[in-house]
TrEMBL record:
The lineage of its organism: Eukaryota, Viridiplantae, Streptophyta, Embryophyta, Tracheophyta. One of its GO terms (cellular component) is vacuolar proton-transporting V-type ATPase, V0 domain. Belongs to the V-ATPase 116 kDa subunit family. The chain crosses the membrane at residues 424-448, 469-486, 549-567, 579-602, 638-656, 757-778. GO terms for molecular function: ATPase binding; proton-transporting ATPase activity, rotational mechanism. It is found in: Membrane. This is V-type proton ATPase subunit a. It is a multi-pass membrane protein. Residues 103-137 form a coiled coil. Essential component of the vacuolar proton pump (V-ATPase), a multimeric enzyme that catalyzes the translocation of protons across the membranes. Required for assembly and activity of the V-ATPase. Keywords: Coiled coil, Hydrogen ion transport, Ion transport, Membrane, Transmembrane, Transmembrane helix, Transport. GO terms for biological process: vacuolar acidification. It holds the Pfam family V_ATPase_I.
Length: 820
């Protein structure tokens, strides 16, 4: 419950029961020391500033230009981070302090580095594009050259067969696709051609469109490029084909050029002269070698520059984030032009007053200010924020409670009891000490390596498990405890504490029945006797035990919730809630379900065969009838009549008196206040931030009465439904036990019975995966959610309003974690 806050006794013990006492403070800070003051308060992290300029837009505030300047530096830092991530350069850990560097120097340095890096990137992109274009050009020269050379060879061979050697020589000097000699020279047509690369997925459509656009007056030849090609325009890898398109006429050429542009086909010049082709390939290869050397040198220079940036990246990033947070906070302060000072208001814990004053004094000295800052406490009727000082063990539980709603200021905190009751109710549903050990081992791994894991970026699910590692540890420890009570280790019973108290009377009782058992030893000392497991009466026995246990636990926790409402009423000095809320609720709940709990305990102690269902049902239907064999103690009928009468009387006690008493208190409070005395006008430091006169607030009796009616109906009906809701403890415990038993008997034992090593190995693998996937993951999540519901609905609605707001101080630690 309480723990010393450290710091040499400067802070009071940490108390989770109620929020830390808070105060509204006012700081009057000279302009010359304002920046350093906010910086020191950010390091302290114990002041939540109020926005005194809420009516102004962000651009109308005093430090809008500085925030814009910090935002520009932050953009440059994000640019550097992106560039380092692409290059695989990791920023070094911060060794210096952010105070060692000046923001102006950082701004100049960032600007110079960005300009240099942008220039290097632009040059590198230009060179890389030229390199990719030359690579494509080289592929075109090689692939198209192969096509032209093969066509040339086949034409030469054909001509040698049909014509004389002299004619053949003439043909070698003629164009490649010249018409036959029989055709008139005046009617010969000179064919043009275009070469390039087209994406492979578009090649068939490309060829079809060309054919249709020219009405078949083209000849297209394509060759597949085996390796992937980097496209010069997009810079991405793509599979392409080299194409050669033969056409006739300028009109066809213009159509082909437009189609190439539409399909993203890159065109390159090509000569049909074999000697020129060889010369061009040599030139392109030489230029590629030169470009590769230049690109490598540029990348080396770029990596050196990024290494230089990485050496101070964390230092610059932290400095810029802090400066931006400081100026955001300064914009929330009110500017007094005449006095050349800033006025700040904010919430802080009472224990932090001395530390805040020391920070103000230190800032005034360090900034060489001739005037010190003024610290004063304001009186207000505004509801303060809620602040619980937690550690790494209690923070996860407090987050679970806050997820339902943040406690109202000074309201009793359910987290104090949730630390124990949450893992315990989870364990009631999950009870198996084998599964509990598995959970504990997994959690101990997270706890042992928590320092290393805390500095790493984990996945969403892993991050959630790591944050709640101590809650899971408690859940696993309680699961081991309840598993020992249930005597289940992966559904297998073990006589750990003593031999079973029962033995078989003869061999006939070995057929899994408890009828033939006789008690030969003392009662099993702890938990369930292992002899129950596997018997025909195991399920009825465990059902009865766990169902009654669930009711006892539920009634106990609901009573705890109502008792907490008493302490809330006492703390807030509300005697109305004590007499007309706490007492009637205690009477109603315990007259019915408290009585049922007592009957369960009496039945366990006496071994009676009374039917408790019959007792409770006829307590309402026929309260005057004789109980007969269902009577558990003398004068039971009289006791039931009294309890039933008290339960009926408590309902109007909850409903009627409170609205009338509140109305009377309101009238008495405001009687004779039509002419209120004027308050002192020179008390500028005493502010009323709740807005308006509280003395003239309206009292809507009908609204109060309806609210009380709803609250009463909700409690009366909820007493029944909430008690029934706790039966989920029995249901999930039974489901977990039966699932574990099925996996053991129908998978592991079944595989063992085949006397085959392969089947046994498969059975073990299936058993392990079923245990981990279903019982250790799905069942854990299921039990966690049900325990969460029992706390949020059944327990906390008895006393917890949860309509407060959390204390959110200005802190550089929180700012850094939010940015990440």
């Amino acid at each position: 419950m309480a723990e010393n806050g450290g710091g040499g006794g400067c802070c009071p013990p940490m108390d989770l029961m109620r929020s830390e006492p808070m105060q509204l403070v006012q700081l009057i800070v000279p302009m010359e020391s304002a920046h350093l003051t906010v910086s020191y308060l950010g390091d302290l992290g114990l002041v939540q500033f109020k926005d005194l300029n809420s009516e102004k837009s962000p651009f109308q505030r005093t430090y809008a230009a500085q925030i814009k300047r910090c935002g520009e530096m932050a953009r440059k830092i994000r640019f550097f981070k992106d560039q380092m991530s692409k290059a695989g350069v990791l920023p070094k850990e911060m060794l210096g302090k952010e105070n060692d560097i000046d923001l102006d120097d950082v701004e100049v340095k960032l600007g110079e580095l960005e300009a240099e890096l942008v220039e290097i990137n632009a040059n590198n992109d230009k060179l890389q594009r030229s390199y990719n274009e030359l690579m494509e050009y080289k592929l075109v020269l090689e692939k198209a050259g192969e096509f032209f050379s093969s066509a040339h060879r086949s034409a030469t061979a054909q001509q040698r067969e049909t014509e004389s050697p002299r004619a053949s020589e003439d043909l070698l000097e003629s164009p490649l696709l010249q018409e036959e000699k029989s055709i008139d020279a005046s009617k010969q047509v000179k064919l043009g051609f275009l070469t390039g690369l087209v994406p492979r997925e578009k090649s068939m459509v490309f060829e079809r469109i060309l054919f249709r656009a020219t009405r078949g007056n083209v000849y297209v030849r394509q060759t597949v490029v085996e390796e992937t090609v980097i496209d010069p325009n997009s810079g991405e890898k793509a599979e392409k084909n080299v194409f050669v398109v033969f056409y006739s006429g300028e009109r066809a050429k213009s159509k082909i050029l437009k189609i190439c542009e539409a399909f993203g086909a890159n065109r390159y010049p090509f000569s049909e002269d074999l000697r020129k082709q060889a010369q061009m390939i040599t030139e392109v290869s030489g230029r590629l070698t030169e470009l590769k050397t230049t690109i490598d040198a540029g990348l080396g220079h770029r990596n050196i520059l990024l290494q230089t940036i990485g050496d101070k990246f964390e230092l610059w990033s932290l400095k810029v984030r802090k400066e931006k947070a400081i100026y955001h906070t300064l914009n929330m302060l009110s500017l007094d032009v005449t006095k050349k000072c800033l006025v700040a208001e904010g919430w802080s814990p009472v224990f932090a007053s001395k530390e805040i004053q020391e920070a103000l004094e230190r800032a005034a000295v360090d900034s060489n200010s001739q005037v010190g800052s003024i610290f004063q406490i304001l009186r207000t009727k505004e509801l303060p924020p809620t602040y619980f000082r937690t550690n790494k063990f209690t923070s996860a539980i407090q987050e679970i409670v806050d997820a339902y709603g943040v406690a109202k200021y000074q309201e009793a905190n359910p987290g104090v009891f949730t630390i124990v009751t949450f893992p315990f109710l989870f364990a009631v549903m999950f009870g198996d000490w084998g599964h509990g050990i598995c959970l504990l081992l997994a959690t101990m791994y997270l706890i042992v390596r928590e320092k290393k894991l805390a500095s790493q970026k984990l996945g969403d699910i892993m991050e959630m498990a790591f944050g709640g590692r101590y809650v899971i540890m408690m859940m696993s420890l309680f699961s081991i405890y309840t598993g020992l009570i249930y005597n289940e280790f992966f559904s297998i019973p073990y006589p750990l504490f003593a031999p079973s108290a029962y033995d078989c009377r003869d061999a006939s009782c070995s057929e899994a029945t408890t009828i033939g058992l006789i008690k030969v030893r003392d009662t099993y000392p702890f938990g369930l006797d292992p002899v129950w497991h596997g018997t025909r009466s195991e399920l009825p026995f465990l059902n009865s035990l766990k169902m009654k246990m669930s009711i006892l636990l539920g009634v106990s926790q609901m009573n705890l919730g109502i008792i907490m409402s008493y302490f809330n009423a006492r703390f807030f000095k509300s005697s109305v809630n004590v007499w007309f809320q706490f007492i009637p609720q205690m009477i109603f709940l315990n007259s019915l379900f408290g009585y049922l709990s007592v009957l369960i305990i009496i039945k366990w102690c006496t071994g009676s065969q009374a039917d408790l269902y019959h007792v409770m049902i006829y307590m309402f239907l026929s309260p005057t009838d004789e109980l007969g064999e269902n009577q558990l103690f003398p004068h039971q009928k009289t006791v039931q009549l009294v309890l039933l009468f008290l339960a009926l009387v408590s309902v109007p006690c909850m409903l009627l008196p409170k609205p009338f008493i509140l109305k009377k208190q309101h009238e008495a409070r405001h009687q004779g206040q039509s002419y209120a005395p004027l308050e002192e006008t020179d008390e500028s430091l005493h502010v009323e931030t709740s807005g308006g006169s509280h003395g003239q607030e309206e009292f809507e009796f009908s609204e109060i009465f309806v609210h009380q009616l709803i609250h009463t109906i909700e409690f009366v009906l909820g007493a029944v439904s909430n008690t029934a809701s706790y039966l989920r403890l029995w249901a999930l415990s039974l489901a977990h036990s039966e699932l574990s038993s099925v996996f053991y008997e129908k998978v592991l034992l079944l595989a063992w019975g085949y006397n085959n090593w392969l089947i046994l190995i498969v059975g073990i693998i299936v058993f392990v995966f079923a245990t981990v996937g279903v019982l250790l993951v799905m069942e854990t999540l299921s039990a966690f959610l049900h325990a969460l519901r029992l706390h949020w609905v059944e327990f906390q609605n008895k006393f917890y309003e949860g309509d407060g707001y959390k204390f959110a101080p200005f802190s550089f630690i929180l700012t850094a974690s939010e940015d990440e």
